[in-house]
Amino acid sequence: MGIARALVTEPAVLLADEPTGQLDSETGAQIMELIARLAHERGTAAVVATHDAALLARADRVLELHDGRLKPAASVPAAG
User: Fold this and answer.
1) CB under 8 Å to 38, separation ≥6 — which residues?
2) Closest CA to 14 of 39, 37, 50, 33
3) CATH number, domain at 47?
4) Which domain holds residue 35?
5) Which residues contact 60 (CB under 8 A, 6 or more apart)?
6) pLDDT score at 65
7) What are the two backbone dihedrals, phi and then psi, of residue 40, each rounded to the nearest 5 degrees?
8) Which InterPro entries match (predicted)?
9) Which pLDDT belongs to residue 1?
């Protein structure tokens, strides 16, 4: 329901904090597909905070927050 509310106004930027954190793997994959599709089809910028390796692996760009500073991720874990 929260994702639907966030998307109804067709925002330019979607902010998602751990969108797959409490989901089973199938539902998490559906959410990842939705976010990716929105980003690519609508041109929506998706800013996602996550520890989910599968979501990280799908990202166009991955940054790490380290000691309060954003920096490019040293490596992106493989999904699976």
Assistant:
1) 7, 14, 44, 46
2) 39
3) 3.40.50.300
4) 2-72
5) 39
6) 87
7) -85, -40
8) ABC_transpr_LolD-like, P-loop_NTPase
9) 61
Walk along the chain (80 residues) and give the pLDDT tens digit of each residue.
677 787 788 889 989 999 888 999 899 889 888 888 888 888 889 999 988 888 888 888 899 888 999 998 877 666 55
Dist. CA 49–CA 44, nearest whole Å: 16
Q: Is 8 part of any domain?
A: yes
Task: Judge whether 14 lies within some domain.
Answer: yes
Amino acid at position 43, single letter: G
**C-beta atoms surrounding 36 within 10 Å:** 15
Instruction: Supply the DSSP string of the chain, one letter for each residue.
Output: -HHHHHHTT--SEEEEESTTTTS-HHHHHHHHHHHHHIIIII--EEEEE---HHHHHH-S--EEEETTEEEE-S--PPP-
The total of structural domains in the chain comes to 1
Residue 80 lies in a domain: no
